[in-house]
Amino acid sequence: MPVLPAYYTGVGTINNEGSALMTAKVYERILDLLEAEGINTLFGIPDPGFIHMAMTAEGRGWNVVSPHHEQAGGFMADAWSRMTGKPGVCFGTQGPGVSNLAAAMIVAAKENAPTIFFGGQRSRVAYQRARRGRIQFIDQVSNFKPMMKYVGIIEEPDQCDEIVREAIRQVTSGKPGPAYIELPLSVIHEQFNWPPITPPETYRLVEQAASAPMIARAVALIQAAKNPVLLVGQGMFTSRSHQVVGQLAKLMDCPILQTSGCAMVIAGMEDRTFAYGFSPAGRAAANESDLCIAIGTELGEPVHMGIGRHWEKNDNNRKWIHIERDGMAMNVNRPIDVPLVGDIRDVVPQLIEALAATPRTPSAEFTQWKTLQQQWKAELLASVPSGSRPVHPARFIVEATKAIPGDAIYAADGGSVTIFGWTYSQYQPRDLVWNQNTGHLGTGLPYAVGAAIAADGKRPVVLVTGDSSFMFHIAELETAVRKKLPIVCVVGCDYSWGLEVGCWRKQVGPDSPETEAHWGDWVRFDQIARGFGAEGVLVEKEEDIAATVERAIASGRTTVIQVPIDPDANAMDAPNYEEFKSWYTDFKAGYGADAEDAY
Amino acid sequence: MGVKVYERILQLFEAEGINTIFGIPDPNFVHMFVAAEERGWNVVTPHHELAAGFMAEGYARMTGTPALCIATLGPGIANTAGAMMCAKVENSPVIYLGGQRARVTEQRVRRGRIQFVKQQALFENSVKYSASIEYADQTDEIIRHALRVCQSGTPGPVYIEYPSHVILQELEVPAPLPPEAYRLVKPGADGEMVAKAAELIKAASSPVLLVGHAVQCSRGGPQVKELAQLMGCPVLQTSGGTAFIDGIEDRTFPYLFAEVADEIVAKADLVVAIGTEIGEPSHYGKGYLWAEGNVDRKWIYIELDPEAIGVNRPIDVPLVGDLRTVVPQLSAALKNSPRPEAPDLQRWITEDKQRLANLAEQDFSTESGRVHTGQWVVEATKAFPKNGIHVRDGGCTVIFTWTYLQSKPHDVIWNQNFGHLGTGLPYAIGASVADGGNRPVLFTTSDSAFLFHIGELETVARLELPMVIVVGVDNAWGLEVGVYKRTFGHGKTSEPGVHWNKDVRFDKIAEGLGCRGMYVDKGEDISAAVEQAFASGKPTVIHVPIDPVINHGGNQNLDTPNYDRFRTWYAEGQQ
Fold first, then answer.
1. A14 assigned to some structural domain
2. Residues 533-562 of B with CB under 8 A from A
3. Taking the model in full, what pTM does it have?
4. Comparing C-alpha atoms, which of A469, A474, A455 is closest to residue A409?
């Protein structure tokens, strides 16, 4: 008989079969079920439907974080999840609270984020009525169903366990994605006799290793390959598989290619990690590889589906292994020689075990690529423009990132500023939060907050962002201050929608009116920051940036550093723009079309 | 003569008198934006697409026409999702134009396509009509159907997808048709029913008008004024219909929130309900106050949506049609036999004036020295400029506003069906843009509501809108603090998640965004500050620290004005 966990504080009664039942309210039970998964943080604005849950959660030592816009709460939950590997939980009160989450739901689905959204609602009796003009009442389920992997309504308390567990099951299985659980007011306060809480392995698949024959085939390919590469995507990060993937790379002594979604660097793997597409070593390694092990990536457009552009020339000579938990994803974008269907956290150790006795030595080419990478980085750094006012965006990135300490979490947001970041960032973060599938501006600050909360405020967080992006959810600066989060926001300011200015000039013409792509150059983010109780600094000289960032990080206080950047360079000179354009290509036949065909 | 699809869309909207576009111009929309600007449209870019959706709503309420909100594919249109749901509940005719990749991409089976989601399916359930311009030559019929659907029956939002392959295609099309050629425009009611209604009105002893939100949103004020004067009767405002009609302000009383309104309801033996859902805040026309006095009163209902008739309560004479046409029909039938003024009308007017005066003269002193919310309302609305537009946002502060309001604005913009905080600032912007930036806009808001879309202060500054914003600051989600106390008792909980830091200065934030900022901590100084702010000609945010305990209703939960009445709105499933 399972032992009741110590945190269970309900009053116990014994049922006929002799196992203990606990009496508790539905909202308490929900917290119990989430705690069984190690979840201890709740994001949302507590309204009548959720005050009891929020209070009980706080009483149990949970973090309860109230944003200034529910959408931001949804993003915070996503970032929390990326940092912990567990589902993030957020809620919105009935009507407008939950509708404010709609955008975050769409984004969570696109980001493959295992977020559980709770929505308040009136009592069940209200659902089927034919009435008009009911205050704050809408049919929420039909609005959110198209966005979710799973939708459940707890109509009766008895259904609570199975619905919450199904949501957890759905968000953590196959391709991760969000779930919505509706909590009618009638149900949430009902008292019920519950069976004991049992651990995850009793109600869902927790381990998912690949089949032995497939592992054997993969190992054979690895041992036969001359230039294997690991192509590592967002899934590595969100499953917190840094360590095992690093171990595999070491055992295989091969390069790690970063997808655009996974620009974090595994500790100890700095020398061998190259950005696919955005670095010469990355391009060379992709091109010359004869085996690619794709780990936790959708093999999406930014990596040309594994077929086009940098893969194309040598496609015939290359084998593919794909470690992916969703069996339905196999072979969709391109043929896979050895599909390893399973969880990265279980499959990579299988490969490590099978290869442990026969570590590889690096190929000559690999050694050359490492050198190439160092040379390129040095040349790149030497080529960064200097001395301009406002600061050149490349210089902005270099200065903002060169002094970031090794344990800092990096958050990125913005259009042009992000593109400059891919090339020029001097920081190799273990943890990087950025919205890369959706390309959703405005996620940066909420992501930074969620990540900081997940790290218990113990690690500094540095957000490098464009100014337009920063404006979306700027009020969350108050949340950061209130929770005493060590978040430093470095804002590159051109007072425009920079990427759009570029579109205007390139698509419409250099004399286009750039209608509404520019806004007030009088905006002072440092003042706004101080208005929120944060620190704020305006830095106009490039030589002052790094020191200001360092000081801000050392202070441990929420800080906004405003740096005016060159708007023309930001709009027109994004590096590797052709590579970025080559992503958007599925309106042509084939895969990975030429950049000039993209818009 | 060929016209490109993006230009044709603008032409079709112009045929309905629409000349403003809200949204962030991304690659799908640059051509449309240039063309719109060249054609003299207002082009307004927010700092969050959700705000664009609300701005469009605010615009629609001021013009009586549909409004256009655009957003780029993927994240852009996703950001508007909440505004679509809000527009549906608020019955706002907003047309959302969403960018998308070329149609060929829709049915592909691929993973990891950057920024791509299948959009139509996402929004279908949130709008009245959803379609994609898959073939360029379907532009006319699709856009026209959008315009048709969003303004018919119960008005509401529409989603139209605008894939990239059609944008630049050339159409061979004739000049755009006027609306009468492709849809029903302002239909009138059946003549026999109108005659029946007129007879009831003539025969009634105490008829009353119940005026809802749609009267303002369809700009039907002048027509309703004519009818009210012919009927000599009082006018009751619903919770959504809080705008006052020019010329009959004095005889207009808020249902549920004024003592004379209780008497008017009890006495009424005939109700003419115009442009209201007769919803929960009006107790479906059946319960609470309607259950007193002349409970067998007769109902005439002027309503555009035939399906609404009889749903919430029985209707004796339904007049199905557009109120802008139906009300004049009724007035025409009464023209030759106007009713004398209701015998109690002058007494009601005097008593209600007294109510307002008493409220204004109440003792507003507080222990904390911070401003009493009632005084915040009185002082701000005392200085409401003539011909101003009043915009509201907030929880507790709005509840106080219903009671203490000292002004009678001809336009009130507030989100009342959905109770959606954060709509205020974008509503104010949309309304002001629709007005051409002429009339002064007074925006009274709580701090929590104001923070949702505070970035739009830059938009206000950029567009140089004549706006004064008075913020009641208690650094808390006031209504939620009250809920904690009501539920658990004062001091029994730490009230998690509903208090935030006291160092926030909205005047400083405003200055950082390019507006003027003022800090006023004495209630008696607010009025002068508001006047000064309007006189300055620059958009201004006035930070007013209010007493948090009074705002949330006192530690014993006894002090929110008319709270018990407000709670009766939530008829079911909420207690």
1. no
2. none
3. 0.93
4. A455
